[in-house]
Design brief:
Strand content: 15-25%
Number of strands: 11
Largest sheet: 7 strands, parallel
Order of helices and strands: EHEHEHEHEHEHHEHEHHHHEEEHHHHHH
Number of helices: 18
Number of domains: 3
Shape: globular
Distance between the termini: 57 Å
Bound molecules: nicotinamide-adenine-dinucleotide, magnesium ion
């Protein structure tokens, strides 16, 4: 083990964000020691990564795959574990830095465990923060954990906030590409297929967030994420469509000075910022070439075609269990759309109907959030089953 190496764990190592993180580690492998790598079901890829990076432990989320992972790692000294509890245990390992890149509320328990241990957590897994909100922020504050936003917009805001104080902020502008259907009519959107929805014009991402970008529910989830990460108040957070995805977000201060963070649309750039934080690392990402971009343009969201962000704004202003219900329903509806169980426009309709049908009391613990998440999934599933 190198003396100055950073010990890291990557939750969701086989995904889009996980792979981008490991690409950065490959640039200087001696600078890192990999404690744990996790995946949900891709045994071969997880085993190959664990071997390549000499991971201390490999954890597969699906507990039925324990034997398969064990045999794929036979002859190595890599610890093998499986199941949800093993994911949480892996979050207890002593590390300097954790990448939280599981998709969905499934990542909540390991993120909470990392934060409770006072760790530095690079948060890509927005759904965990959307669902648990103030409870997650309070856990981080209590333990002294550091939460580094990885979502490109939130990483941009985090960087822009180095230029002033949070109480001096007049407005935060979250930029949105508008997704693949920005210029489609409602009529056209109705017929969009999963293959069309996951073909994002600027970013190459996992299937769930790609569909969220197409509905723009992603921007709504990001509004909720920003509300918790940057305590300026909901009315000071705006969304602006910027199709080129060059300006990743902006912070306007009370003197009317606006700071923005720019870069090529490549997730390795915000991940590198979180990985090296508070320093800067050298990457092999493509530098921004504004002359070849030519023009940057901006427009308002069309709330009629993209109701997701306003549903999210209402949910976070109501608070309590609403964001957790919204997130759970969206996860179910997106999975239903990807499986051909409902149409594209049904996704946000299912979310709204779930919010109408289910109204539990105020969550006070993470267990409450997990129970609400589970119940909201059944309600949404029931609504989904009645489509088609
Ligand atoms: P992905 O689908 O490519 O990867 C998800 C990872 O999580 C995989 O390693 C998978 O094995 C694991 N996983 C999935 N379900 C799991 C479960 N039930 N239990 C344990 N592990 C599970 O997703 P992604 O695009 O890398 O996104 C990951 C997170 O980062 C999401 O929350 C997403 O919103 C956020 N994010 C992604 C991007 C991007 O460019 N991909 C950008 C910003 C934010
Ligand atoms: Mg984003």
């Amino acid at each position: 083990m190198a003396g100055n190496s950073k010990t890291i764990s990557i939750f969701g190592a086989t995904g889009s964000v996980g792979s981008s993180t490991l690409d950065l580690v490959r640039l200087d492998p001696d600078a890192y020691r990999v404690a744990a790598l996790t995946a949900h079901s891709n045994v071969e890829e997880l085993a190959a990564l664990a071997r390549e990076f000499h991971a201390g432990r490999a954890v597969i989320g699906d507990e039925n795959l324990y034997e398969a992972l064990k045999s794929a790692l036979a002859g190595t000294d890599i610890d093998v574990a499986a199941g949800d509890e093993a994911l949480v245990e892996a979050a207890s390992m002593p590390v300097d830095w954790t990448m939280a890149a599981i998709v969905g509320c499934a990542g909540l328990a390991p993120v909470m465990r990392s934060l409770e241990q006072g760790r530095t957590v690079a948060l890509a897994n927005k759904e965990s923060l959307v669902s648990s909100g103030a409870l997650m922020m309070a856990a981080a504050q209590k333990s002294g954990a550091t939460l580094l936003p990885v979502d490109s917009e939130h990483n941009a805001i985090f960087q822009c906030l180095q230029g002033g104080k949070i109480e001096e902020v007049r407005r935060i502008t979250l930029t949105a590409s508008g997704g693949p259907f920005r210029e489609k009519s409602l009529q056209e959107m109705r017929a969009m297929t999963p293959a069309q929805a996951v073909a994002h014009p600027n970013w190459d991402m996992g299937a769930k967030i790609s569909v969220d970008s197409a509905t723009m529910m992603n921007k709504g989830l990001e509004l909720i994420e920003a509300y918790h990460l940057f305590p300026v108040g909901l009315d000071k957070i705006e969304i602006l469509v910027h199709p080129q995805s060059v300006i990743h977000s902006m912070v306007e201060y009370r003197d009317c000075s606006t700071l923005a963070q720019l870069g090529s649309p490549d997730m390795r750039i915000p991940i590198a910022s979180a990985l090296a934080w508070p320093a800067r690392m050298t990457t092999n990402c493509t530098p921004l070439d504004l002359a070849s971009v030519g023009k940057l343009s901006f427009e308002e969201i069309d709330n009629k075609r993209f109701p997701g962000p306003s549903i999210c704004r209402v949910a976070i202003s109501q608070g309590g269990a609403r964001p957790a219900i919204l997130n759970a329903a969206n996860e179910v509806a997106v999975a239903g759309f990807l499986n051909g169980q409902c149409g594209f426009l049904d996704i946000t309709a299912i979310v709204s109907q779930t919010l109408e049908r289910y109204d539990p009391g105020q969550p006070v613990t993470i267990q409450d959030i997990l129970a609400i998440d589970s119940e909201a999934r059944s309600v949404a599933q029931d609504i989904l089953n009645n489509y088609r």
